[in-house]
Amino acid sequence: MRRPGAPRAGCVAPRAQRARWASLVVAASFGLVSSAAAQFVNPPTAASPSPDTSPEETAKGHGTVSVAYQNTYVNGMRTTNGWVPTGTVRTQSLRFDVDYFFADKWSGQLGIPFIESRYEGNFPHCITNAPPQCATATVPSQPHPESQFLDDGHYHGTWQDWHLGLAYHENVNDYLITPSATLQIPSHHYTFFAKAAAGQDLRKLELAIELAHQLELSNLYYRVRLGRVFAPETLGQSINHNRLDLELGYFVNETWTVKVFSVGRKGSGYFGPYGKEGFPMTSEEWYRHDQRAPHNYASLGVGFDYNMDERYTLSATVQRLVWGQIVFDFKYSFDVRLTRAF
Fold it and tell me: What is the pLDDT at residue 257?
């Protein structure tokens, strides 16, 4: 792997390669948070210094702005005992991100998504018996006037969590190594007791390290990222977990890049039952079950990057859940992102 601008035999033209490979240097460590209850993430998208930066110039003062749209379809839930037909959830989100190099090897990131979800099914999360769908439902015994009923078959949207990131970028013998820290802060106290909820309403800190490398005399590259996420305990339950992102890509020509990827999460959480064999459905543990569940999963996907010109890149991915424990069973999640380098 080389620094941007240093051509290599057998590879695509320097300008396009520079713009694309630089995208692996920057905050590829910052992922997209999606569908709150499922708590899965998209593979990171391109963010790079200005593509016309020469090898002699520094990255300082350069970065990207991007906007991404994501559409996810969930049907049922994966539990420790198999698939459960809990209904369907359609989630759409619009995310805004800014990545900026404030020093040659240091970058910061700021992002926030607006998430809109709709639940359709016979098992809504009912906070009271007032809604017609909840007339015969078991509801929490402790009043929670701050929680809204969202599982009424209509779309409900709100701003989710701020994402504040810091990353250090180093090239060691043509291997790009990027340690990073990302703080996730709820933008406000939104409803989390709902299948159509925007998120878990929890602060989280992720410490991660990423390794990226372009194979010698080849247009192939790979990326491996491992992160550890820390969150406050809820009613004594830890949900700290590990995240693993794997990506294999190929620079087809000056314009196109294709890739396959896998995203996974595994960690702590409450695996036990509710109802007769566990916490009653009137308990505070049930009310906060989404904040206490492990949400373990693994997904597989494919995607591409289209280099529109020296500054604009259009990216798209689609992925599907292949394994999960106490997590929404998303049949597909489609993402498209437009990035502008500066």
Answer: 98
